[in-house]
Write a structure and sequence with these properties.
alpha/beta, 15 helices, TIM Barrel, binds iron/sulfur cluster, 8-stranded mixed β-sheet, 2 domains, single chain, Arc Repressor Mutant, subunit A, about 20% strand, 14 strands, about 350 residues, 3-stranded antiparallel β-sheet
């Protein structure tokens, strides 16, 4: 569920979010209507409320939204319920509300522990605010906490990044995501012609993987690292091609073989013209997408699923390519799954190209 509001726009951000809160009440009304209309009977074992910044919601709203979701969807007891928050708006009251509503996972936008870099990135918080929020959430019983880090920010050095990863991975977190900076059109970084040094990013990534592993954070997807048993159940669904319903502005859904897309136009969303696209995905496309997403994960792709769901006998269809990749040590087959080796994570695009 998407909450498309932020206090201000970060320099690198290309997400669908706005700092114009004048539409918030109408947006909430339309979101409640969408939840009602799209409610389902099937059991739902993960909920993810992201943004934007869910922690900017007015007091009482996050609890109400989750209550409303429970009324309209069959959310299992024990479901993983994640809320994203930014340290500058993640107040004690917000955390209490989350806890009372059954939120059991918090995803905090940290990005860096270096206040100078946070200012460069246009973040509104400093490191101290993050730490306060982390310990406040732990104190309220939310123990499954994730932090996001960006690698390749302007003025960030390899040494600086290593120091950040060492520091952050020593905190009582269960999950860390690291994203390489991309400079996309429409962002302040793009307008200011901020450059990206991909070689330096690769070095940072490589160093980060090692430091994280030494501190017990194991890579289970290219950008995601978790203590054992704390892999994000929700994100894993995207990579495993499980169905999901996206609610809110610009949200995407994948269910019943269809991909649907909500409008990114706030005026249309508010008047109830929510859906902007719906397509039946061709089998070939589904198959390629599954291979691409699943190979990014530690557990790789389920060869039986590929056969039963997408009619693809990969071991036959790509026999010579798989042999070559196995001889090179780039992939292995283990328990009916084809997995990329740790070394192959650096050349994943080439491996995927061989298999689709
Ligand atoms: S807080 Fe997140 S969604 Fe909001 S502007 Fe910054 S990066 Fe974008």
């Amino acid at each position: 569920m998407h909450i498309p509001y932020c206090k201000s726009k970060c320099g690198y951000c290309s997400f669908c979010s706005s700092d114009d809160f004048s539409t918030l009440k109408l947006y909430s009304d339309s979101l409640y209507n969408e939840i009602c209309e799209r409610g389902r009977e099937e059991a739902c074992d993960t909920v993810y409320i992201g943004g934007g910044t869910p922690s900017v919601l007015p007091r009482g709203e996050i609890g109400k939204l989750i209550w409303f979701l429970r009324e309209n969807f069959n959310i299992e007891s024990g479901a993983e319920i994640t809320v994203e928050a930014n340290p500058d708006t993640c107040t004690d009251e917000f955390l209490y509300e989350c806890r009372r509503a059954g939120v059991n996972r918090l995803s905090l936008g940290l990005q860096s522990d270096d206040d100078r870099l946070l200012r460069v990135a246009g973040r509104r918080h400093n490191y101290a605010a993050f730490e306060k929020c982390l310990y406040s959430a732990l104190g309220k019983g939310i123990e499954n906490i994730s932090a996001d880090l960006i690698l390749g920010l302007p003025f960030q050095t390899l040494k600086g990044f290593e120091k950040t990863v060492k520091h952050v991975s020593s905190l009582p977190l269960k999950h860390i995501s690291t994203y390489a900076l991309k400079v996309e059109e429409g962002t302040e970084f793009y307008d200011n012609e901020v450059g990206v040094d991909e070689d330096l990013q690769a070095e940072m990534y490589s160093a980060g993987v090692e430091i994280l592993a030494n501190n017990g954070f194991l890579r289970y997807e290219v950008s995601n690292f978790a203590k054992i048993g704390f892999e994000s159940r929700h994100n894993s669904k995207y990579w495993n091609h499980s169905p999901y319903i996206g609610l809110g502005l610009a949200a995407h859904s994948f269910a019943d073989g269809y991909r649907t897309e909500n409008t990114a136009n706030m005026s249309l969303y508010i008047i109830g013209k929510r859906e902007s696209g719906r397509e039946k995905i061709p089998l070939q496309e589904l198959r390629e997408e599954y291979i691409m997403l699943a190979l990014r994960t530690r557990d790789g792709m389920d060869l039986n699923l590929l056969k039963s769901a997408y009619g693809c006998d990969l071991l036959k269809e790509k026999a010579s390519e798989i042999k070559m990749l196995r001889d090179l040590g780039a992939v292995k087959i283990d328990g009916g799954r084809l997995k990329a080796s740790p070394e192959a994570f650096y050349i994943l695009d080439s491996v995927i190209l061989k298999l689709i």
